[in-house]
Amino acid sequence: MSPADILQALSGLSALVVGDVCLDRWCRYDPALSDPSRETGIPRIAVISRETTPGAAGTVASNLKALGVGRVSILGVRGDDGNGYELMQALARRDIDASAVLQAAELPTFTYTKLINDTNSVEDRPRVDFVYTGDIPPAVESAVVQRLNQLAPEFDVIIVSDQAETESGGLVTAKVREALTAIAATDPAKIIWVDSRRRGALYRKVLVKLNEQEAEESCLAYFGQLDYQALRQRIGHSTLIVTQGPKGAVIVGEGSTQTIQTRPVEHPVDICGAGDSFNAGASVALALTRDPAKAVEFGNLVASITIMKPGTGTASPEEVLAASAALQK
Questions:
Q1: How far is 104 from 77, CA to CA, in rounded Å?
Q2: Is residue 206 within 8 Å of residue 190, measured between CB atoms?
Q3: Is the pLDDT of residue 239 over 90?
């Protein structure tokens, strides 16, 4: 299938994004208005405009919807707070089904506030994060597993966004991983695509995508050397994908390794969210083509567009077609 064929077929696909969802707030401030605070004397940061977007798993979902996937839903957790309300509004604006985003009063909504200088559009102030570093409550974990088992049969593709930096993980706990393994065993044809920042080697029977650094850390931790085949065998899936930024990606299959090169993009604007764009494009392309090489090529195509946009941008079908045509020249 060509990129055009893939795009045409996406409206018939359904995708469920499972994992850590957050609110990204892009706040532009005017340094000329940094008057000292009367209370502390510390100059204020005077925000003059802001934009909110879904982040992490929400970025994956936004990319899926922008590409034209027919049904996009997200399973995650938010707090009972204003940031949670804004997150739900941001998802609704993108026509992403957020009915499975569970509300938990015990947790804050993960929120990342970027402060951008309005005079030069540079993010030059420390980010302000609303975080939670503990384990999710058992009742919330049980609810997530229950909803995952209920929803899984309805979707062609399940994409897991396991982005938490904590040791035990965020939404994707050991029990959630076990549920994913069981789903894979029940329906081997279903695409379950996992992007995990720290726990890729802990998944079983699903396709795991890691970047070079993540793959190296996993290999050294478990085998003492760089061995992608051993890592794939440990996970127990026919395919492991290791992305290499501008160099492309390595597809590790059963007894084979294939490198898919990509055309380097000169002067990328913002690589933030490139992995999420790749995951969105590659996972649905794999569901349609059943060809990991075609999937990686399509994922690279999508990511090549979004890295030319500020923030966590998305790629439209028209942009993908134009980028594909440019590669043929």
A1: 7
A2: no
A3: yes
pLDDT at 270 over 90: no
Secondary-structure percent of the chain, ordered helix, strand, coil, rounded to 5: 40, 25, 35
Crossing angle of helices 212-223 and 228-235, rounded to 10°: 80
- The bridge status of strand 111-117 relative to strand 122-123 is antiparallel
CA dihedral 235, 71, 175, 222 (to 10 degrees): 20
Length of the chain: 329
- CB neighbours of 159 closer than 8 A, spacing ≥ 6? 15, 16, 17, 18, 60, 64, 193, 194, 195, 279, 280, 283
Q: What is the DSSP secondary structure assignment for residue 195, as one 8-state letter?
A: E
Q: Which of 309, 281, 313 is nearest to 297 (CA)?
A: 281
168: which residues sit within 8 A by CB, 6+ positions away? 135, 174
Q: Under DSSP, is residue 128 helix (H, G, I), strand (E, B) or coil?
A: strand
Question: Are 186 and 193 within 8 A, CB to CB?
Answer: no
Query: Which residue do the tokens 């510390």 mark?
Result: 42
Distance (Å, rounded) from C-alpha 207 to C-alpha 192? 6
- Give dist(CA 298, CA 286) in Å, integer: 9
Q: In the sheet where 207-211 sits, what is the strand order?
A: 97-104, 71-79, 14-19, 157-162, 191-196, 207-211, 240-243, 249-253, 256-260
pLDDT in tens, 112-153: 999 999 999 999 999 999 999 999 999 999 999 999 999 999
Q: Which residue from 83, 75, 79 is spatially nearest to 25, judged by alpha carbons? A: 83
Give yes or no for a contact between 75 and 144, defined as CB atoms under 8 angstroms apart. Answer: yes
Residue-range domains of the chain with CATH: 3-327 (3.40.1190.20)
Amino acid found at 101 = V
Token readout for 129 is 């994060």
Q: What is the arithmetic mean of pLDDT over 105-118?
A: 96
CA dist list (Å): 311 to 36, 48, 49, 51, 282: 30, 18, 15, 11, 20
Taking the C-alpha atoms of residue 41 and residue 23, their distance in angstroms, rounded to an integer, is 30
